Amino acid sequence: MRVDPSAEPRNALEQGNTPEPRNTPHARNTSDPGPDPGLAPLAGPRRLLRAVVSRIPLPLRGLRSRLLISFVLVAMASSLGTGALAFREARTGVLQQSQDSVINRFRASVEAVAPAVPHAPAASDLQWTVNQIIHDNRLSGWRVMATYGDRRAYAPTPRFTQPSPEMLRSVRTRRAAVFQRVNVDGSPRLLVGMPMTYTADEDQVQRLSGVVMYLEVPQTAEEGYVEAMVSGIERATLVALCLAVVLALLAASGVLRPVRALRGATRKMAAGRLDVRLQVTGSDELADLSRSFNETAAELERTVAELRRLEARGRRFVADVSHELRTPLAAMTAVTDVLDQRVEGETGEALRLVSEGTQRLSVLVEDLMEISRFDAGAARLNRDDIDLAESVRRTVASRWRPEEVELRLPAPGELRARVDPRRLDVVTANLVGNALRHGEPPVRVTLRGREDRAVLEVTDNGPGIAEEVLPHIFERFYKASTSRTRSGNGSGDGDSSGLGLAITAENVRLHGGRIHAANHPGGGAVFTVELPLDLDDEGGAE
């Protein structure tokens, strides 16, 4: 007998894909773990992504954290991918080289003893064959088994891992060597099956003799090489991750530096510093953003400066015109008052019309001068500790009849505060006069204390305020008379120039209070003023 020298081992893909031996409890096939089960598609990936992002703490959502995580993930993917590819190729090379070396040595040993093996060997012939192969490779740690039909021979001991049925069938029907990798008690081993052939004298055709030689070789050294490769790949991955973190920090610092500068500049601009500018370096997108910010800031500064200049000119014009009109209007008012008392008939009626117009013009001029003082920041409070109920009572009594205004005030001395008496008089008079012009008497004036505030409410009996008018009710020169029926009753303070409620709101805010307009559920408008009771004395002469 002899071994066919042209017979080569089957390729690793074909030979390694053999199932685990069924009759050996400690042996299993590790050559092919089988395909991994496919991942089921996720339902709603966008919803899942949003849910995952929403669970990330806010500090980790910053640009620095995202850059760092991105660099680390890229480095991990690159390192693991490269490491896995290198490990696969190196492992395949190590195992292939070891496998080829073992198979070639085993083939040479079998060929050396094959001529001495008879065509129908007895058990002693098989035992001599395996003993001779072990003797020739006594330092290799081999285990050899020879089979012929039901006969078996083992060396150096009968302990041999049983090949799988598939391997047994394959090696009996093929002339090529067949191998299988198994794991026995956690130790990797290589099983090789090699048939002996003989050549018939009549036709010189090689035929299978029925004798099959099996070899079991431990692969501890190869496993050590693989573990060393894994350790090296792990160290390389760790170095790559550290390098990625350093690069991510450097990149984040370079990216975030102009972003932080932009954030600081916007905060300064929000605080009123419109002259702030960014230093532009480079030609990337961040540099373009900085240039755009500088151009926007410059244009905004120019626009705001122009608006301020026009506003200052407008305030100065109003103040100058009001001041110039004050003196001649005072003289005209005095003359018309004298003539009203002396002239009768049609001329007297004309004079009364002139007198009323002059008075309205005088009130408008006074309101314009008051508004100009608010705009210029020249309005000051002359505070005094007064009885709020007594102040409201005097304001109403000096302007309207008792049947026109219903007072609901606390007892004398019960509600006191440090306020400007003149400005409180203006607030009360404007609100009551506005309520009488747009509603039916009596107007209800209610004053009460609420915690640390005094609350003044003025309620009329008119049609209320239209919803579209409410947001503009305290704007200057805004008139809501088209939406509220004018009764013509009342002759108190509060003009129809559109400045009365605006001046009222300015006076309330000057005191640190709040004013609010709404519609009463029972009908009519309600103006509510809240004034703090514990103000510090900030007053001074106007």
UniProtKB/TrEMBL annotation:
InterPro entries: 2C_sensor_his_kinase, HAMP_dom, HATPase_C_sf, HATPase_dom, His_kinase_dom, HisK_dim/P_dom, HisK_dim/P_sf, Sig_transdc_His_kin-like_C. Residues 1-43 are annotated as: Disordered. It is an enzyme of class 2 (transferase). Residues 320-535 form the Histidine kinase domain. It is found in: Cell membrane. The chain crosses the membrane at residues 67-87, 238-259. One of its GO terms (molecular function) is kinase activity. Its cofactor is Mg(2+); Mn(2+). Its EC number is 2.7.13.3. It holds the Pfam family HAMP. It is a multi-pass membrane protein. Residues 14-31 have a biased composition (Polar residues). This is Signal transduction histidine-protein kinase/phosphatase MprB. It comes from Streptomyces variabilis.
